[in-house]
Amino acid sequence: MSNASVKTKWQDRILYVILQVLHEPSVAFALFFFIMLGMFSMVKPVNSEDINFASLNLNLNLSEFLTYCYQNRNGRFFVQTLYYYSNYLNNFWKWICSICITVCAFLIYKFTTYNKTFDNRDKTILAYLSCFSILIINFEILSPSLFWVTGAYSYLIPYTVGLIGFSPFLFTLQSEDYKPKK
Hints:
The chain has about 180 residues and is mostly helical. Helix content is about 75%, strand content about 0%. The longest helix is centred in the last third of the chain and has 26 residues, at about 150-175. The protein is flat and about 60 Å long. The relative contact order is 0.12.
């Protein structure tokens, strides 16, 4: 057996294993999470709203900060409290946003595949579609709502929490055991 044929078989085996791994739906979500984390790691807060809001946070205590936000911005106390405490952790918002986007993609995948029979290939395609379909959104819309700190805290986190809260109701309605009274 020649050295070239051994090398080719070895390369074919590695390629086969990689393709088998990529055909698992769970790999789509792990890959998507790390891609999102990589994208967020390249984001620097250049938006004046993010910078001004961060400096305001450093000058006020929590109650003053929440009062200011309620009077001048919005009444989202949970989000503003989370922002107040996480502002001191520089990369926390990048991690939380990557997790939230991945959770949203996973729940969309589960909503689509729950109580339906798909083969593994179709489930994998749906997993990749649910992950990467966010890239269809126009960048002018995606940027302020996702890649700005204040936008991510104001829109992405509440949306994710709402989607998580809505999921038991949807799974109940999609369940074969659910029999509404007539």
